[in-house]
Amino acid sequence: MSGVSGNQDVDIDLGQLVRAVWERRLKVVAITLIGAGVAFAGAKMIAPKYRGETRLLIEQRAPAFANTQTSDATAGPLLDELNIASQVQLLQSADLIKKVINSEKLYELPEFDEAANGSALTDILVALHLKKNPAENPPEERVIDAFTERLQVFQVPGSRVIGINFTSKDPKLAARIPNAMASVYLATQSGAKLASNSEATRWLEPEIESLRQKVNDAEQKVAEYRAQHGLLPTNGGSNFPTQQLNDISAELTRVRGEKANAEARAQAVRNALSSGEASDTLPDIMNSQSMQRLKGTESGLQSQISDLSTSLLNNHPRLRSLRAQLADIKTQIRAETQKILTSIENESKVADLRATELERQSGALQQNSAKAGEDEVGLNALQREANAQRQLLETYLVRYREAASRADSNSSPADARVVSKAIQPVDPYFPKVVPIVIVAAFATLIITSIVIMLAELFSGRALRPVGPALPVARIEEEETVIVAAPAKTKRTVAPSMLSAPAEEPETEEPAVAVEAVEENEFSIGSVADYLTGSRAPLAIAISPTGDDGSAATVALARRLAASGQRAILVDMTGSGYPTAMMAEDLEAPGVTDLLCGEAAFGDTIHGDRASDAHLIPQGTSDVRKAMRGADRLSLLLDALMSAYDIVVVECGAADVAGVSRLTRSKDVEIILSMPEVLEDEFVTAMTEFEKAGYQRVVLMSGGESAEPDLTRRAA
Predict the structure, then answer these.
(1) What's the number of CA atoms in the CB half-sphere (13 Å) around residue 542?
(2) 73-82, 201-210, 511-520, 592-601 — which is least confidently predicted?
(3) pLDDT at res. 513
């Protein structure tokens, strides 16, 4: 039996659960070994399966002789995610699977015919109508279904690679099937290109013959139209009248320029003759050979005259003869200049006559050119038609030659290639004996341990009562346990923040029994161990003797924190003695500030300066004003209990009415902190809390001690 009463709180004893499993360790190990052995035998009984894998890379491929224009990426299919997914579905199509089945003669293998290689489990499921009879399906469909179950086609994430996995009991077949599927797929893709080229060739042949006839007819019409309207072609691409008009216009422009040039030259010679200026600077005169000879003779005579003038007189016959010759030479120069002027004027007249004749011819050719332009409108229309037919014919011829050049299977490769061929696997991928045995053994160990723990829980052996672990002062049916202590005079203590007028007792004090205990039996350490074992979330400490009891409560909170508990002490005393002992700042915000709304909840929690415990000090606000919101104290304690393992409230010399303002629940730990036990005060406090309904009252006296050895005596 568990030893737990029906109305008592219980908790799960984790240590007992572990001990129960450890006590049955041999049985657990045996069951684990049996489970591992069963898994090993089952794995060995399962027929091994092998898996082969082939990988294809989807990419645009062109013949080796293709140029950059025909191999442009825009001419092929777009290699996006949808295209890759489409290729995955194509590899799983029934037509491709049928080709592989027929090429490898898989219909002859019993592995692919479930009806011929049935099992007892299959027969039972068919008899119970839980599974369709495989024999009802056609043989071809059964083979395809078996093939599809063993086939897995997938796209490698983040790439254009497609993997083909095939599972089989035969390792050779597991490697041969993926390679065969890749070969059939590539052949199918290449065949699709060849079919497209053949279809294009068949369609282009009659179209090309028809276009050739149309081109011949259009060019014949152009030639007949030219001959009929006299539109003979020229080198410039225009008609003959237009070409003549252009030539005459150019010649007329040139002649007019020559005429203007001759007139300017003649005017320059006239000006030189009329003004008496030297004419030997004019280009026409300087270019004349006669003028050059005359000028040379003139220069020689002047040189001789200059030489002889130095030795002869002016009337010397020799000088007179030379001067006569010089005058004759100048006359000849003037006559020659006049001849040059006449020659230039003749050139101007000839140019004028030529310009007149060219203007007359230009007028006649303008009429012929206008008529030829009108005739060219029809010629241009015929030429456009002929050019369009010729361009279309040339395009068809280029396409025909390209399609005819790809009639061979090697000239039209598929848009994919094998990057990894399947090889014959050595180790089966299923079953993996070692991982299966390890997982089975681990699962058996866990399940066996869970079963043992559940058995302990259901039997009650793993449950322990949640009750006081130390001797406590509690009221039973007709007996109240108290501690006998020497009577002392009552001292004056500061009232608690929770102090309220105490009501007079209406009944007489009942007889109580007093336990005779050794000194320091209810020490701070014993009370701390009791609170830790009972897992009490809230303990209300009453110090009838004043600050010495509050000091013991502070020691209790520090002892709880030292044992690893998350403990907090709330100072509800009137003197603020716990705050003075624990707080680093006596002006730190506390309970009164929180109740008055002058501080946030988080700002009132402070650390103990001597331990890991926390403290909510008394505060600096007015106590009377703060106690108007005493109803919120229960909410404060609820919040603290959700964050800490234990909350200790030091109330000082409080009475039952004051404690009732903290919490309405009577199921709390009441600690009477009395380092020096005063029997009268203790009995009075016990009686008051008994009448108020508090059943869990613990006495805490000063000092540490071992476990008590209690003997009972009458009070």
Answers:
(1) 28
(2) 511-520
(3) 33
Contact 416, 59 (CB under 8 A): yes
d(C-alpha 444, C-alpha 33), whole Å = 9
Model pTM? 0.42
Q: What pLDDT is attached to residue 547?
A: 85
User: Residues 537-554: pLDDT tens digits?
Assistant: 889 888 887 888 888 899
Determine how β-strand 669-673 pairs with β-strand 697-700.
Answer: parallel
pLDDT > 70? residue 238: no
Distance, CA of 668 to CA of 662 (rounded, Å): 11
Contact partners, residue 465, CB within 8 Å, separation at least 6: 3, 4, 5, 8, 9, 10, 11
Name the β-bridge partners of 513.
Answer: 481, 714
Q: Determine the Cα angle at 259 with ends 253 and 264, to 5°.
A: 130
Beta carbons within 8 Å of 515's beta carbon, 6+ residues apart = 471, 481, 482, 483, 484, 710, 711, 712, 713
Closest CA to 645 of 545, 546, 563: 563
pLDDT for position 9 = 55
pLDDT exceeds 80 at position 157:
yes
Please say if the pLDDT value at position 643 is more than 70: yes
Residue-wise over 214-250: b if at least 16 C-beta within 10 A, else e? bbeebbebbeebbeebebeeeeeebbebbbbbeebee
Q: What is the pLDDT of residue 64?
A: 53
DSSP assignments along 297-327, one per residue? HHHHHHHHHHHHTTTS-TT-HHHHHHHHHHH
Q: How far apart are CA 628 and CA 632, in angstroms?
A: 9
CA distances from 401 to 197, 198, 211, 398 (A): 10, 12, 16, 5
pLDDT above 50 (res 254): yes
Is residue 573 within 8 Å of 496, Cβ to Cβ?
Answer: yes
| Torsion angle, alpha carbons of 25, 30, 35, 36, to 10 | 100
* pLDDT band of 45, cuts 50, 70, 90: confident
Question: What DSSP state is assigned to residue 686?
Answer: H
Task: Convert 624-662 to b/e letters by CB count within 10 Å (16 or more is b).
Answer: eebbeebeebeebbeebeeebbbbbbbbbbbbbebbbbb
CA pair distance 553, 571, nearest whole angstrom? 10
DSSP 234-260: -TTSSBHHHHHHHHHHHHHHHHHHHHH
Indicate the pairing of strand 711-714 with strand 606-607: unpaired
Query: How far is residue 229's CA from residue 595's CA, in Å, rounded to a whole number?
Result: 120
675: cis peptide before it, omega within 30°? no
| Alpha-carbon distances of 134 from 114, 116, 122, 126, 560, rounded to whole Å | 7, 9, 9, 9, 74
Q: Give the span between the Cα atoms of 265 and 230, in whole angstroms.
A: 45
Mean pLDDT of 198-217: 84
Percent of the chain surpassing pLDDT 70: 75
Least confident interval from 7-21, 459-473, 617-631? 459-473
Start-to-end CA span in the chain (Å): 36
Tell me the CB-side half-sphere exposure of residue 268, using CA atoms within 13 A: 16
Higher-scoring residue by pLDDT: 192, 445: 445
Identify the residue with better confidence: 505 or 182: 182
* Cα 144 to the center of its chain, rounded Å: 40
Nearest-angstrom CA–CA distance, 533 and 537: 11
CB-based burial, 314-353: b 16+ in 10 Å, e otherwise? eeeeebeebeeebeebeebbeebbeebbeebbebbeebbe
